[in-house]
Task: inverse folding
């Protein structure tokens, strides 16, 4: 029996093209302790969104009717639990130095900006 030539003519599935825009990401390590431990995961997300918006950072947003900043939190903690090494990843539209990003966010956050060596800013490997 001869091989079916129609099977060879079927194109391989194509990989979708990534969305336009830069893919610069920054990973932030932070602590969620003290009175912040009573902040729910949803409220923490809204707080980060508000800080990013007020700092006028070039954050990539989701597509659709209600665009949101592209934030990824590693884990969501239950209410009242202290997080000593929390991680958030922020996706940017354009390159921005880590120092500039950190300074602009610090100006918008209330309270002490640094609590020691737990906080780290840098490009995501």
Result:
């Amino acid at each position: 029996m001869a091989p079916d030539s129609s099977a060879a003519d079927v194109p391989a599935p194509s990989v979708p093209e990534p969305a336009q825009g830069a893919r610069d990401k920054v990973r932030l390590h932070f602590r969620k302790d003290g009175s912040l431990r009573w902040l729910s995961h949803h409220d923490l997300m809204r707080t980060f969104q508000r800080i990013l918006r007020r700092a006028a950072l070039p954050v990539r947003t989701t597509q659709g009717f209600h665009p949101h900043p592209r934030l990824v939190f590693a884990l969501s903690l239950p209410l009242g639990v202290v997080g000593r090494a929390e991680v958030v990843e922020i996706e940017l539209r354009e390159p921005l130095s880590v120092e500039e990003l950190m300074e602009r966010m610090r100006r918008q956050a209330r309270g002490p900006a640094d609590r020691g060596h737990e906080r780290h800013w840098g490009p995501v490997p």
Residues 112-122 have pLDDT under 50 and may be disordered. The two ends are 53 Å apart (CA to CA).
